């Protein structure tokens, strides 16, 4: 494919990634985050609350967090000295010191990796005040679950950060982080009820309706944004069952699989995504990434 054609497809896929479908669980997440911000402002100086959001990889946690940050920034536009929401994504084996360093780096601190753990902590707290930050979102929090010892438990440091009374915290991660929270009941006592994103179950009517609604809105949104000319028309029970099997009921994986199918459809200049595109997308993306062991779309084409 020519460079020009690649550019055209890349632009379409980039636009697809801007789509955010506010399905009910994301709406609830935004509402709880907003409440956490409001509660934090009303109790400034007193120990703050946190909230955990755990879900399988690809559930749309990070996308939902960024959408919330954009919503707050639209309400209170950030400036050079005002950052209402700070999102920090952690690397593997992140220590407490590395956490503080990562927060400082997000604030643009050119010396974020210099200093002791206590020095970095003081600078972090100072930045929260200086930039008027109202909510800290720690993404990939499961990576804090490494290299903890009895004398340096990361959960104790997180609890202490909430106790400063400076800022509420949302902890986002995979189910691997659950043990970290269970290990420290004192930290759990400082958290709101969990806002975990559980996979949608095909056998539960409400979940099945949410799953179908999400796919339909995504299909419509692609047409409305001009990414493809016609809706796919794929709404049958067999198709939805196959889509659920490949995605395991994880909404973010529906989007990722659809993105792969959209690319395939665009490369063959189709005016809509067809079953063939989902079959190939499953082969190239879901099977290759070990999300699924077989391709349910293949038998539908016979």
| Apparent shape | elongated
Radius of gyration: 21 Å
Q: Give the helix tally.
A: 13
- Strand order in space, largest sheet: 1-4-3-2
> What characterizes the major β-sheet?
4 strands, parallel
What order do the helices and strands follow?
HHEHEHHEHEHHHHHHH
| Strand element count | 4
CATH architecture of the largest domain: 3-Layer(aba) Sandwich
Q: Span between N and C termini? A: 29 Å
The name of the CATH superfamily of the largest domain reads P-loop containing nucleotide triphosphate hydrolases
The CATH topology of the largest domain is given as: Rossmann fold
CATH class (first level) name of the largest domain: Alpha Beta
Mean pLDDT: 92
Number of domains: 2
Walk me through the structure.
This protein has 302 residues and is of the alpha/beta class. The protein folds into 2 domains: 24-98 and 126-188, P-loop containing nucleotide triphosphate hydrolases (Rossmann fold, 3-Layer(aba) Sandwich), CATH 3.40.50.300; 202-290. Helix content is 52%, strand content 7%. The chain has a 4-stranded parallel beta sheet with strand order 1-4-3-2, with helices on both faces. It is elongated and about 65 Å long.
């Amino acid at each position: 494919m020519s460079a020009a054609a690649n550019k055209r497809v890349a632009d379409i896929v980039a636009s697809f990634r801007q789509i955010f479908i506010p399905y009910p669980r994301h709406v609830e997440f935004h509402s709880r985050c907003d409440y956490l911000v409001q509660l934090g402002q009303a109790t400034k100086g007193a120990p703050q609350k946190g909230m955990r959001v755990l879900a399988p990889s690809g559930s749309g946690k990070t996308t939902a967090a960024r959408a919330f940050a954009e919503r707050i920034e639209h309400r209170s536009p950030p400036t050079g000295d005002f950052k209402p929401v700070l999102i920090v994504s952690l690397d593997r084996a992140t220590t407490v010191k590395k956490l503080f360093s990562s927060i400082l780096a997000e604030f643009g601190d050119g010396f974020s990796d210099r200093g002791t753990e206590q020095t970095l902590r003081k600078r972090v707290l100072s930045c929260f005040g200086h930039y008027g930050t109202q909510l800290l979102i720690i993404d990939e929090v499961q990576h804090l679950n490494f290299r903890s010892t009895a004398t340096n438990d990361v959960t104790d440091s997180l609890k202490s950060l909430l106790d400063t009374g400076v800022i509420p915290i949302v902890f986002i991660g995979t189910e691997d982080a659950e043990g970290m929270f269970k290990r420290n009941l004192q930290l759990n006592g400082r958290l709101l009820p969990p806002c975990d994103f559980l996979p949608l179950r095909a056998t539960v009517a409400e979940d099945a309706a949410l799953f179908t609604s999400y796919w339909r809105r995504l299909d419509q949104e692609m047409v409305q944004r001009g990414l493809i000319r016609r809706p796919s028309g794929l709404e049958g029970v067999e198709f939805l069952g196959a889509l659920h099997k490949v995605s395991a009921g994880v909404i973010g994986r529906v989007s990722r699989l659809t993105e792969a199918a959209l690319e395939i459809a665009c490369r063959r200049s189709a005016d809509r995504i067809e079953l063939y595109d989902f079959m190939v997308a499953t082969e190239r993306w879901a099977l290759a990434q070990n999300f699924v062991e077989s391709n349910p779309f293949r038998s539908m084409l016979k």
